[in-house]
Amino acid sequence: MLKWSIILLVVALIAGIFGFFNIVAAAVGIAKVLFYIFLILFVVSLFMGRRGRSM
Residue 42 and residue 35: Cα distance in Å, rounded? Predict the structure, then answer.
């Protein structure tokens, strides 16, 4: 998921260089959403991983 965020940010940078500002806005918006989802899932996996082996 982080990979897709980075790819969309690169697409936004390239589109910005060529002046396609509508594509930039869409790509950046999608990249932000994917990045926040990645962060939430990462934090959840950190906490769930610590509870896995309690004996």
Answer: 10
Closest CA to 8 of 25, 22, 27: 27
Structure tokens at 2: 């982080």
The amino acid that residue 10 corresponds to is V
One pLDDT digit (tens) per residue for the chain, 55 residues? 678 878 888 888 888 888 888 888 888 888 889 889 999 999 998 888 776 555 5
The pTM score is: 0.67
Burial of 18 (0-12, 13-18, 19+ CB in 10 A): exposed
For 33, residues 6+ apart whose C-beta sits below 8 A from its C-beta are none
